[in-house]
Design brief:
Layout lengths: L17 E14 L2 E8 L2 E8 L4 H8 L6 E10 L12 E12 L16 H6 L1 H4 L3 H23 L3 E2 L17 E3 L7 E3 L5 H9 L4 E9 L11 E10 L3 H20 L9 E3 H8 L13 E2 L1 H4 L5 H4 L3 E7 L7 H12 L9 E5 L5 E3 L7 H10 L7 E7 L1 H18 L10 E5 L4 E4 L4 E4 L26 E6 L2 E8 L4 H10 L4 H14 L7 E7 H8 L30 H6 L11
Parallel strand pairs: 3-5, 6-9, 11-17
Antiparallel strand pairs: 1-2, 1-4, 2-3, 4-5, 7-8, 9-10, 10-22, 12-13, 13-16, 14-15, 14-16, 17-20, 18-19, 20-21, 21-22
Bound molecules: aspartic acid.
Amino acid sequence: MYRTNTCGELRISNVGTSVTLAGWVQRVRKMGGMTFIDLRDRYGITQIVFNNEVDAALCDMANSLGREFVITVTGEVAERSNKNKNIPTGDIEIIATALSVLNKSDIPPFTIEDNTDGGDELRMQYRYLDLRRATVRKNLELRHKIGFELRRFLNENNFLEIETPILIKSTPEGARDFVVPSRMNPGEFYALPQSPQLFKQLLMVSGFDRYFQIAKCFRDEDLRADRQPEFTQIDCEMSFVEQEDILQLFEAMMKHIFKYVKNIDFTEQFPRMTWADAMKFYGSDKPDIRFDMKFVEIKDLTAGKNFSVFDDADYVGAICAKGCANYTRKQIDVLTEFVKRPQVGAKGLVWLKIEDDGAIKSSVGKFFSEDELKVWADRCNAVAGDLILILAGETMKTRKALCELRLEMGERLGFRNPSVYAPLWVIDFPLFEWDDETQRFYAMHHPFTSPNPDDIKYLETDPGRVRATAYDMVVNGVELGGGSIRIHNSELQDLMFKLLGFTKEKAQEQFGFLMNAFKYGAPPHGGLAFGFDRVVSILAELDSIRDVIAFPKNNSGRDVMNEAPAPIDDSQLEELCLKVELPLSK
Ligand code: ASP
């Protein structure tokens, strides 16, 4: 028998029992005639003791063990004289009577400790060793627990988990497809699903009124911190529902997860905010509402004083940083540099301080009188001790920059504590998004999203003002998921395709099977999908989803451990009737 117990299990109540443990050697310490080994497995670490005076041969064997050797040890559980309060097994140790080496190990390229000495690239190359570290392992344990609780909740609410295919025809989620050549159909390609969107809608036509799937999705996009080319969705769809039914059910699901995974009770309804308000007050469709600091528009108060920065701007917006009037010139310079970064994109920063005695100081004091500045301050609800920061320019761009500045100030003021959760629904998204470059409308969510019934009348005359029946769940400034009520009427769907610039033939070619299915009694339906990796990373209090994925890809979409992607053999290419021509720069 390799083991009777795990390395995380034994306590003072086990003293006197004979046990066998198996695991990896974390550390060997020699002190006088004694040798101590920290033995590790998935469950914890237990100290093993070898006494040279009792059994010199066994002790020699222990001294010869290297880091990460796999061993099994038998001995008696004893109370430790020198207790370690930092680990759950710290009151006991095992007095070894037998030891056998199950496998040797090369010296690992980094230490398997919480604070390892391994850099990112090295840890990814040896991800199987990185996963031995408790910090990374805990993230995967959390992921398992969340997945388990999700399934429990959805099962209790009558959802069926149904798998949909991976080799499919393209789904329109707005990204590039990954494609797979078909050997049996030369010259033809499958796409990998960007989401199971079309299949889940077809399942509604089939009468499965509550579907879910923890589904792998693939999008060939440029990668950012919270993006991976393959990721996992908690994908859901329901029939005979309106937006309100969906919001309530999935709010209950998130509350269930918070309760059973984090022991956090949300008793109130999650706040709801329209997309228009989110943009107006936070400059983002995923506002972080852990703190207030809403935007205040002051363009109307600034006109006609020959201050061209404001006069030429479509938009002048302010935020009030409470208690920050003591910011030094240097600190404000740092903020100015921050807003001028290309990722933020502002041209400069205007500030206004209300000193403790009520006097107002401002970087635009030359252009505006103290009385005029006082009116700005009043509109911002600023009082003595507050600092007002102002950006001006084109509306959308300036709102975006002010959003970044607000988040930066929130960070500096300690308002963005990852263990505080502020969920919210963003609703009433626009149906279409205008693209200047291609001079046409795109679906903001996807082409199957239903317009708000009140706005259908504007579809053909003023598409830009049509709201969608679409919603996102946002937590701490991160979009955890989103979805919509779908169009289930084929005429409306045809019109939608037309407005999105699809010819009849193109729509038929891409989505004919869905349009056909809709002719056979499609029920009203809607759904949403959560980014599973994001849900886990938020609950793990991490910024990036990489640390909650067992084998993630790096920023160039590579798996540095198994070296994918890689070229394939000429014979494989031939079989697939493919020829590769690399661009000259390669
Ligand atoms: N398929 C959508 C997405 O991946 C979610 C949905 O509409 O249910 O964003």
